[in-house]
Amino acid sequence: MSLSDATARPAAPSRLAGLPVALAALFCLACLVCVIGADWIAPYGEADLVAMPWQAPDLAHPLGTDQLGRDMLSRIIFGARTSIGLSLAIVTLAFAVGGALGLAAVTLGGWADAVISRIVDLFMALPPLVLALLALSVSGTSLVTLTLTAAFIASLRVFRLTRSLGIDIAARDFVDVARLRRDSTARIMWREILPNAAIPLISEFGLRFVFAFLFVASLSFLGLGVQPPMADWGGMVRENVGALNYGRLTPLVPAGFIALLAISVNLIGDWLVARRGGGR
Amino acid sequence: MNTMTPLLEIRGLHIDATLPNGSTAHLLQDISLTLARGQVLGLIGESGAGKSTLGLTALGAVRGGAYVRAGEVRLGGIDLLTGGPALLRDIRGRRVAYVAQSAASAFNPAFRLIDQVIETSVQRRLMSKADARRRAIELFAKLELPSPETFGEKFPHQASGGQLQRAMTAMAMCARPDLIVFDEPTTALDVTTQIEVILAMRQAIREEGMAGLYISHDLALVAQMADAIMVLRHGRMVETGSVKQVIEAPATEYTRQLIAARGLRHAVQPERPPLLEMRGVTAGYGNVNIVENLSLVVPEGRTLAVVGESGSGKSTLGKVICGLLPAKAGRLVFAGRPLEPDMHRRPLDDLRDIQIVHQNPDMALNPRQRVREIIGAPLGRFQGLSGAAREAAVAALLEQVELKPELADRRPGALSGGQKQRVCIARALAARPRLIVCDEVTSALDPLVADGVLKLLARLQAEEGVSYFFITHDFGAVEALADHVAVMRNGAIVATGPTAQVLQPPYHPYTEALIRAVPELRLGWLDAVIAARKTRSQDAFPDRRPS
């Protein structure tokens, strides 16, 4: 129960309260357009050398050029496709696998829960980066293996969260009632437990999305992620870090886009949670 | 301070709240009251009546999202609504204190009780630490806590629920406030624990000469604690007056209904053959047995009530019958056939025949499903109904539990407590069961609503011939519904037989202790209990008493 001092009517919420969410949605929409239509929107090619390295922004290159003289705006647009597409694939896969396993663990309980949980514990005990390096050096660095590896690592945490949310829900009486009419495990998972865990999972999705982004960036830094000349926002920060020595702010452009996307996705996630949580 | 001004004065108070969907709810409308020093006012009403909202305003507080639309609240002549945060901080704890419903969640588990009890007094420099400790120990003694000298050294988890509730009263009283707001302080307790707490609280209030606002939905209880009563409904005042006036000559129909609630009596029915027999059942978790070697019979089309305090093993027994908790030993016989202990091994027909209705409909109904799905699921599973036939059956069931068919579109969040419990009953009925395990089905409901549910259960039994295994701690519900009663204590049956026989003298001593602990709706009942205790040197159940 939250209490406040008894006073006259509180100030009405500002009309601008919805503005950040609207801006965030707009930004995400723009990113989505880039993901789909990068080839048509980008003014230059992804790997075209069009000017001198680290040129200051001008009309031809609104965000300047990178360390090889490629147009930053074009690379941001192509990078959106790689980074967002990759992260989205990773997180969706992680939630499908981790979420399903988490729900199965709580619904089945007993030894099934114990076995799945201990295996997950085993993998969580290893540092994620080491795990990824191992997997990528064994199976080679393709976008598919990169996605699978990162999804596997993210799914461990998704499993943990789903299980801890689900344990509380599975203990409620309506789940007993469903068991007593012999509903299948899958039906109990999807119809009884998942809808009640959906809200925290949605906000976790936003967070995991951003982490997947950073994870791919750090793998790129080690040369195991996205391979040049393909653009990705995390890789672009690394490529252009040297510009800071020359008084150029080039690496802050992709970094700024990463930050904007992270904030936007979480704003939208929070908004969804508030709307669904408070509405009923 | 001027002794002529009343201690608490509320005039024309309106409190509104902005709901998440943007609409405005009127929590309180045009409430006025005055409370003199040393007086206790009982606030009565069902959930949502605005009792707690009114109680909180005496602390100058509202729940999040609520605000004062009009009116004033004065404590000792000081206006609390315009005084600002600094004034409120000064008033709270020092001049007015609060005792919450759940002491277990109100104490910080990481600190010793005494440090929390004296915190306000010491922090605000009202007393030295040594004085405050002496005061706390004196209050522990007044509240009849065991070994008051050392009681405060316990951590919250080391004290029982009843002890914590008294410790919280001590915390409220420590700084010698003028007014204490008691918000359903004994609702979460067993009757036998409740009476210890209300006895102690009443004596302490009298001896300390403090004023109180006593919030409860239990009219009989408030009649013992208060000097005057205010009845609230839907945020409005229904009537107010002295306790005697309100319970002996109620002015409104609503109050008359409140007083008449709990008056249902079940007619004696001819005996029927057994439907469910439990023979020497032992069950529990891990190595701990909750019930041991227990035998009971539920007759066909009749009700067996199982009464007892929390922890006596009543609910465990309900789970054993459903097969949720397989019995470790003993046999279950259902309609002449042996019943598998484990639900997973029971045939679907046995699962259909035995249904359960839980205590708390909020936990028993999936908040994300609509009533249509909730009631439709067993119809699909057990009756094989789908499409329009299922739809029609849902509507028929809703009608049978006296709900409008339109409610099928709602989710549980949009239903009242009584409506939710009726949906649970409809879901159980959907299976066409022969036995329904009712686990404290009325204890989360307001008295009038609970009465409605009990009447419904009685009617359904007459219509459908279904048997009830009726778990409760409420003797009113037993008399309203049960043909047979079993009194449970520590996992064993201490008394059993036809209702008329078990609930009439001569009682089993434990049954008597349980019955005597239920507050009666008459003046001076508590005083009679106090008097009786003083003459009796030894309590019949020494282990229930603080040692």
Automatic annotation (TrEMBL), chain A:
GO CC terms on record? plasma membrane
Q: Which domain of life is it from?
A: Bacteria
The protein's location, in the record's own words, is: Cell membrane
Instruction: Answer yes or no on keyword Electron transport.
Output: no
- Output this protein's name: ABC transporter permease
Major location category of this protein: membrane
**A Pfam short name:** BPD_transp_1
Instruction: Give me the segments passing through the membrane.
Output: 20-42, 84-109, 129-154, 205-226, 252-274
Assigned protein family? Belongs to the binding-protein-dependent transport system permease family.
What keywords sit in the KW lines? Cell membrane, Membrane, Transmembrane, Transmembrane helix, Transport
Q: Which SUPFAM superfamilies match?
A: MetI-like (SSF161098)
Q: Which PANTHER family match?
A: OLIGOPEPTIDE TRANSPORT SYSTEM PERMEASE PROTEIN APPC, PEPTIDE ABC TRANSPORTER PERMEASE PROTEIN
Which Gene3D superfamilies does the UniProt entry name for this protein? MetI-like (1.10.3720.10)
Q: Which InterPro entries match?
A: BP-dependent_transpt_permease (IPR050366), MetI-like (IPR000515), MetI-like_sf (IPR035906)
Q: Domain ABC transmembrane type-1 spans what residues?
A: 80-269
Membrane topology, as annotated, equals: Multi-pass membrane protein
Q: Name one GO biological process term.
A: transmembrane transport
Automatic annotation (TrEMBL), chain B:
Entry's Gene Ontology BP terms: peptide transport
Cellular component GO terms, alphabetically? plasma membrane
Note the PANTHER family from the entry: DIPEPTIDE TRANSPORT ATP-BINDING PROTEIN DPPD, OLIGOPEPTIDE TRANSPORT ATP-BINDING PROTEIN APPD
Instruction: Tell where it localizes.
Output: Cell inner membrane
The UniProt keyword set, sorted, is: ATP-binding, Cell membrane, Membrane, Nucleotide-binding, Transport
Q: What is this protein called?
A: ABC transporter ATP-binding protein
Single GO molecular-function term? ATP hydrolysis activity
Domain ABC transporter, chain residue ranges per copy: 10-259, 276-515
Family annotation (SUPFAM superfamilies): P-loop containing nucleoside triphosphate hydrolases
Identify its membrane topology class: Peripheral membrane protein
UniProt lists the family membership as follows: Belongs to the ABC transporter superfamily.
Q: Which Pfam families does the record match to this protein?
A: ABC_tran, oligo_HPY
Query: Matching PROSITE patterns, A to Z?
Result: ABC_TRANSPORTER_1, ABC_TRANSPORTER_2
Where it mainly occurs, coarsely classed, is: membrane
